[in-house]
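TASK: fixed-backbone design
INPUT:
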């Protein structure tokens, strides 16, 4: 074997080793990224999850608003990327605890009983105005002492939460997508899809509650979203009980 042939053989071998090492490195990085994503969402390989959806105010018995369908599609893609499976349940048939399976709950408490139950038990510092009569506070959020009113199509708010049950043997999270309008539900799921890696780095597998604002949805749809504030502590702190009517301070 002369020097030229030897150099060619050595070059082919070196190229093969480099390609193999590159493949191994890419595979390792992909799997590490996937495991982090699965841990954040509580979705190991072949696990089951719940998609709990609200029902539209009109139409057939199981009617879902168009933007809520889009929200479900956003979440279905995330679940599929984690090599997991999803079961869709209407809000008034999801009669079970949480923590055993990851849950994604979509819709405000006015149209989603499951969301109302989660807010009451997990986020006692949050109140959502569900009055049917028109008023400036209709649909508004009260978080601690701050009120956030809805301006349809201009400024609308939503809560994005990742919560786990304390003192439970089950640790799968529940994700809440509680918007003031149906388009904000989709905006919230899209925000999670785009930012889950950053949120995982910041919060790990801990609970968090974020207040989001959807800007000019009548022009931009669900795409322009900004985070207003991390309201985790306030949302998990019970609101003070209202003073009884007619009460007065003794002189």
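OUTPUT:
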């Amino acid at each position: 074997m002369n020097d030229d042939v030897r150099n060619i053989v050595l070059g082919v071998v070196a190229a093969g080793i480099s390609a193999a090492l590159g493949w191994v490195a890419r595979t390792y990085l992909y799997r590490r990224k996937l495991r982090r994503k699965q841990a954040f969402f509580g979705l190991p390989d072949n696990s089951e999850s719940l998609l709990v959806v609200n029902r539209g105010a009109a139409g057939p018995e199981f009617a879902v608003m168009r933007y809520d369908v889009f929200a479900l599609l956003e979440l279905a893609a995330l679940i599929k990327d984690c090599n997991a499976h999803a079961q869709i349940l209407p809000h008034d048939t999801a009669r079970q605890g949480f923590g055993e399976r990851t849950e994604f709950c979509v819709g405000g408490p006015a149209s989603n009983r499951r969301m109302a139950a989660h807010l009451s038990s997990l986020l006692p510092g949050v109140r959502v105005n569900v009055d049917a009569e028109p008023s400036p506070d209709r649909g508004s959020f009260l978080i601690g002492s701050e009120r956030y009113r809805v301006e349809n199509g201009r400024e609308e708010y939503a809560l994005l939460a990742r919560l786990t049950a304390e003192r439970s043997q089950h640790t799968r999270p529940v994700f809440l997508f509680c918007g003031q309008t149906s388009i904000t539900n989709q905006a919230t799921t899209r925000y999670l899809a785009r930012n889950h890696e950053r949120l995982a780095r910041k919060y790990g597998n801990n609970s968090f509650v974020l207040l989001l604002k959807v800007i000019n949805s009548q022009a931009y749809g669900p795409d322009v979203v900004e985070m207003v504030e991390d309201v985790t502590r306030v949302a998990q702190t019970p609101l003070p009980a209202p003073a009884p009517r007619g009460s007065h301070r003794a002189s």
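COMMENT: The chain has one domain: 37-236.
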